[in-house]
Every structure is written in C-alpha cells, then in structure tokens.
C-alpha cells in the first residue's frame, strides 16, 4: 500500500487513479459486447447456444437450458445441511430488513372534490444475474432476489453460466430456490444479459436486470439500459476504513484485506489521523499476506489501488472520506457515532470495531449490492425501491376544476400550447 500525506492534490490524484477501474474505460470490450447483443437480439436461442458453447464449452438446447426440479434436488443433496441452515438464517435477517423498506400507495382527498395520490406497483418481471465459473456467491443470490420478492415482483428469472459439466454450482442453486427464484437458466455473460433484455425463444424479456458480473456483463447492462432498467453498472469492490489512534491495527488490516482479495482491481484505503497506526497496519498486513490463500491477488490489489492516507485531523479525514465516497466505509474511532453523522457519501457504513465488512456481506440484513466508483455520491444500495414503480393519481370534479381553469389556460397560452389550453376551455363553454 502507498502511504500518502492527505492533501487536496493527493486526493484528486487518487480519485483519478480509481476511475481507471470504471467499466467506461474498456472500449475494446464494448465493441465485442455490442456484437453479442446484436446477435442475440437477431437470432435468439441459436446465438445464445453458440456463445455458451464458445465461452463455457457447454452444449445447450431448448430442452436443457432451464434448470429442472431434479437438478435442484441434486443440488440440495450435494451441499452440507449446515450450509443450507446458514442460508436460511441469513434469509430471515435479509428479508426482515427489506420488509421495513416497503412503501404503500397513498391517496389524499378534499371536500372540494379532488383526490391526489400515488399508486405503488411492483415490477412484473425481473432478471437476476449471478456469476458462475470459479465464482460462487450464494450471498449475492439472496441479496438480489429477496428485495424483489418483498416488493411483490410477479416473476423472478435468474441466469448464471454453467460449469464445464453443464450444471450450476449447488450452493447457488439452493440459494436461488430458498430465496424464491421462479425460473433459473444455465446461461451467462453478455449473451445472458441480451436474452433478458430482448427475450429469446426460451428466456422471456424482463423489465429490469440486477446482479453483479465481469466487465462484459457490466458493459452489456450499460448497453441495454433504456430497453430495460438496470440496478447499476458496478465496478470492482472497495473498502475505506476511517480510523484514529484508538483503532486496533490488526482488525483494520484484516478488514482492508477482506475486500482486496476480491480481485486485482479492488480498492482498499485507510484514512487515519495516526501515523503510528498507519505503520502498525502496514506491519499487520504483511503478516496476514504470509498466510492468506489469495495473497497473490491481494498483493496486486494493494499495489494497484491500496492507499494509506494520513490526515492532520479528523475533520480533514472525514472530508476525504466524503470525497472518495467508498462502497464500504468502516468507522473505527473513539466516537464512531459522532463521525457517522458527518458522513455524506458511502454505500454502507459500518460502525465500531466489531462491525466488520463481511458482516454486511452475509448476515447483518442490509443489502450488499452497493454503489462503487464514487457513485455513492448519488446512488443508494439495492433495495425494495428498485423493484417498484410509482404512478401519480389525479381526480378533479367539475366544481374543483372550475376555479382553476382560467389559470391553466393562461399558463398553456404562455407556452404557446393552444391545444393544451383548448382541452381545458371546452369543459367550460
């Protein structure tokens, strides 16, 4: 990790460096993705099966692309009962948290003959993308399906690339079944996003696509946005730890590495007011790297996007935290709740030394699908809100409209929209 004195110039340089990880920085891959999307849109299942054979080395047909009940049963038999129990415990906590986010329709009427309101309606059909191959993320399955289920989405369709044996990971399948996926298809990559966005003979078109994936999946989601809705164009994982001299350096080091192990583009940043803590954290990191299984990936991640920023005081440190707007923010200070009140930009905020980031990944309850690449300045975590839409409701009687109609006509006339004015005028001729 690079240790840097915190200044306006150093923060600006770090932010520019971080943006190199953005999915917008891959023009060559964008062209490849565009070709895949166009092919699937034009040729449907035939293109889908060709790409699955090419990229995943699996022969698919219309009869085998959909996961069957016997495959689900096989998945349950293949994993330890203890893991199934853990998945179910996590589900309870995740569902309970998201149920508190539900919104209801509301209507407000008056004696003058008006009614205004807002009608909340769940999306009809949602697609959930789940990474496959070497990646096994049953936790992401839960985090993407549960809020859709709580919102009342009619049909949840999951897609995930098959392994070379033509099957999905058992833990992924079990998580999908437990969370409430209605259909699961064995297809991944940009071609799966195309299938969800446009529909094929086997896979129905959806209204929204959510879920993480590699750069091809991220670029595909970006490209189909507008034809369907998406959750976000996610970048690599990030963690920022805000700490003072009271922090335990061993805990801080362990937490920074928890995100650095995701991939070589992951970002781990420590912002601290203590030079002594910075030195101790560096030492602890080196010790952990001798024993952790993914140390090669972690080292590369820390070399590329690992920083220790030493600030003069806590106000300066918090300003830097808000400027970076990290996906995960841990606050490990003498008064973490006071510091939390000053945080404006963060995907998820973990308070105190026992609220480590993996708690949020698996078990706390809040969603772990979070804004990255500084987008926490204007985006929120995935929630029930992402799976509903709102319609305005307006009712006026003649008696309620009459005292307003001349004002509306004047407004429309000022905008030279004579048909608008006429639409009101004819009702009082």
Structure commentary:
By secondary structure, this protein is an alpha/beta fold. The chain is 46% helix and 16% strand. The chain is built from 18 helices and 14 strands. The protein has a six-stranded parallel β-sheet, sandwiched between helices. Strands 6-5-4-7-8 form a five-stranded parallel β-sheet, with helices on both faces. A three-stranded antiparallel β-sheet has the order 2-3-14. Helix 2 crosses helix 3, helix 4 crosses helix 7 and helix 5 packs parallel to helix 7. It is globular and about 85 Å long. The termini are far apart.
Tell me briefly what this model is.
The protein is an alpha/beta fold and 429 residues long. It has helices spanning 8-18, 27-43, 45-56, 69-78, 81-99, 138-151, 170-179, 189-198, 215-224, 249-260, 275-289, 295-305, 314-324, 336-341, 357-362, 398-401, 405-414, 418-425, and strands at 2-5, 106-109, 114-122, 125-129, 155-159, 183-185, 208-210, 229-230, 238-243, 267-272, 306-310, 328-332, 348-351, 388-396. A 6-stranded parallel sheet has the order 1-11-10-9-12-13, with helices on both faces. A 5-stranded parallel sheet has the order 6-5-4-7-8, sandwiched between helices.
Strand and helix layout:
Layout: E1 2-5, H1 8-18, H2 27-43, H3 45-56, H4 69-78, H5 81-99, E2 106-109, E3 114-122, E4 125-129, H6 138-151, E5 155-159, H7 170-179, E6 183-185, H8 189-198, E7 208-210, H9 215-224, E8 229-230, E9 238-243, H10 249-260, E10 267-272, H11 275-289, H12 295-305, E11 306-310, H13 314-324, E12 328-332, H14 336-341, E13 348-351, H15 357-362, E14 388-396, H16 398-401, H17 405-414, H18 418-425
Parallel strand pairs: 1-11, 4-5, 4-7, 5-6, 7-8, 9-10, 9-12, 10-11, 12-13
Antiparallel strand pairs: 2-3, 3-14
